[in-house]
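Protein record

Derive tokens from sequence
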Amino acid sequence: MAHSKALLVLENFIGGKFVPCSSYIDSYNPSTGDVYCRVPDSGKEEVEAAVKSAKAAFPIWSSKSPLERSQILNKLADLIEHDLEAFAQAESKDQGKTITFARTVDIPRAVYNFRFFASSILHHTTECTEMATMGCMHYTSRAPVGVAGLISPWNLPLYLLTWKIAPAIACGNTVVAKPSEMTSVTAWMMCKLLEKAGVPHGVVNIVFGTGTRAGEALICHPDVPLISFTGSTLTAQRITEKSAPHCKRLSLELGGKNPAIIFDDADLTQCIATTLRSSFANQGEICLCTSRIFVQRGIYSEFLKRFVAEAKKWKVGNPSDPTVDVGALISKEHLEKVRSYVKKAQAEGARVLCGEGVDSLALPTGNQKGYFMLPTVIAEVKDESCCMQEEIFGPVTCVVAFDTEEEVIERANSVKYGLAATVWSSNVGRVHRVAQRLQAGLVWTNCWLVRDLNLPFGGMKASGIGREGAKDSYEFFTEVKTITIKH
């Protein structure tokens, strides 16, 4: 393909060096629809080189003390933070998210991921028991596993890539990481900082490319004993099948169809503001976003009226405009997929109260070919509708009424996913009671996306296998050994 403008060309990062690839794929700017970057189309050969490099680096890196590794992680965090604005600009352009979201959420969290695991690695303890009658003492020790294969998604590119790299290398593993081919730029930028941070060559290797080529080569490689993946449930099924012959350790953080349950004693002012954010933040392209809103019948009409009025105020447009609330969706194909759900809802008799197909979208001249969509609210949707059952992953949410607590718990649980939920009520007993019964790995009450990284993150059912967090990531990225001493 011929391109009229000079394109940014990325290279794989293997063994501490940038390495060109024999073939490349186009990466688009979601806000303009134009190709602006070329990403390596890596395959078995590139993955083999990266794994070889990671294996060679493992003995030295794993022998460093937790304190030495911690200091290097903190230095890398400092370097990313120093270049925060450049990273934010790149993330916004590459992914389509607003510059405000990249500045305040994505890049600060990437920095914090390194700082958090730099600290937590210093504070883990092991177990010890004594059997006095047998004259024996038992204790456990933990050691890094080896080469970790890390596959991260396109919605929160550096945020979720560092959420995997940081604990993996803090624990003494080396890594081969594959970011999404649609959002590779900030990973490439981070590679430029690794040597300055003191990361030895081969500890972090980044191979760019598609899931079917680079991703599959990584999960099938016999010298990669553990895989951490964040993405779709469908892809996770394939990873499970392909890795099974090797008995690999898997951490799978997958999709969600997250409910918000709003009881009639909720603080509607706080609830509406937060539920707008949980529905439409990052264009609704967060696995934790709310896409099913259950409102108790007594306040249903009032909630719907106020919620729709506020949703219409969200500004859609050029992501580099700091006043914009909603940027571009990741790709033309994804935009069409999200739009198709709205059309299906209408065909089933649901009402679209605002957004797609109802309100006009005015875009700046330079963004006319971008992948934009208005925040869309759908009412009168049946629970069995695909819009209430499947992950849409866009700025679309469905609002339905309920009558009783028992009823809404059953309806909230009636999907294959179980990632997150929110509950809104001023009744303390009720929020505890409902939270216990919801089939979700995370339940927020009267808030959303308040995270303590010490605690487990992950979902039930089709939303994943395993958990991530200080203790859980430490256990995933290390092997435990029980040692018995008779005295």
About this structure: The chain has a mean pLDDT of 97. The longest strand covers residues 136-144. Residues 128 and 139 are 4 Å apart (CA to CA).
